[in-house]
Amino acid sequence: MAAIIAGTGASVTEGLAPAAKILPVIINDTGLGNQPDQMAAAIEYAVSQHVSVINLSQSVGQDPSVAKAVQDAISSNIVVVAASGDESQSSVDYPAAYPGVVAVGAVDQNGTIWSESNTGAQVTLAAPGVKVPTEDLSGEAATTDGTSASTAYVSATVALIRAAHPSWTAGQVIRDLIATADPASGQSAGQHSDEYGYGIVDPLKALQASAPSETSNPLLASAGSTASATAGATSGTGTTGTGTASSSKSGAGLVIGIVVAVIVAILIIVLIVALSRRNRNRPGGPGAGGPGGGQPYGGQYPQQNPYGQQQQNPYQQQNPYGQQQPQYPYPPQNPQQGQQGQPPQR
Question: What gap in Å lies between CA 149 and CA 206, rounded to an integer?
Answer without folding.
Answer: 19
